[in-house]
Structure formats: C-alpha cells, structure tokens
Design a protein that fits this description.
120 residues; elongated; mainly alpha; 0% strand; 62% helix
Length: 120
C-alpha cells in the first residue's frame, strides 16, 4: 500500500465521469431533437450508485430526482422536449456540485491525515 489512499478518490472521480457522460447525452438530445430516427440518451445513476459506489447524499439526490433510462424511448426525436432536457441539465449541475464538494472534502481529509502523520 502506498502513502496515499488513492482509492478514496475513485468514488468522486467515477461520479464526475458519470455526470460528464450525462451532460454529453443531454446535449446530444437537444442537438438531435429534430433528427428522424434519433433515440434519446441518458445515464442511469441509480443503477451505478446501487453497485456500492455512492455516498448517502448522492443516494438521496438520486432518490429525489429519479433516474432516466440509459437508452431511449423515442424513435423519431419528436417527443424530446427542450425544457425537459434543460431541467435535467440543471439537476445534473446540482449533482456536479455535490461531486466536486465530495472530491474537495476527500482531498482535505487526505491532506489532514498526511499532516497528522508527518507531525506525529
């Protein structure tokens, strides 16, 4: 085992990756909403978070906001609503803030542990 517990950074890193993927999917939905044959995309956070990689706060956010299907229900793009996609982007932004705060908190904890061990 190394000096730094890098596995502590895995959870926030994976959460930020999911948020980034979801932002890309939502952007694609808006860009292609009038494309015939386009299928709406989204990222299913609950499926990922239920795999054991989550914090209590992130679980509560998923429970409150719900998760969307990872693949589409729309075949022609005609049912994609700009307002709905923008609302999901706003929720994604809130999840991003939670993930960044979690990452910042984890880094602060690691720094504190290193300072304590260096002084002890």
């Amino acid at each position: 085992m190394g000096l730094l517990p890098l596995n502590l950074l895995n959870e926030p890193q994976k959460m930020l990756s999911l948020i980034s993927q979801r932002q890309e999917a939502l952007s694609d939905n808006i860009a292609n909403m009038h494309t015939i044959g386009y299928k709406r995309k989204d990222v299913d956070f609950s499926q990922y978070l239920n795999s054991g990689i989550s914090s209590t706060l992130e679980n509560k956010l998923v429970e409150k906001f719900g998760a969307s299907p990872i693949a589409s229900a729309n075949s022609g793009g005609e049912n994609i609503s700009t307002e709905d996609e923008l609302a999901l982007m706003q929720k994604n932004y809130l999840l991003y803030n939670v993930a960044v705060r979690h990452l910042s908190s984890t880094i602060t904890e690691i720094k504190t542990a290193l300072n304590v061990s260096a002084n002890g």
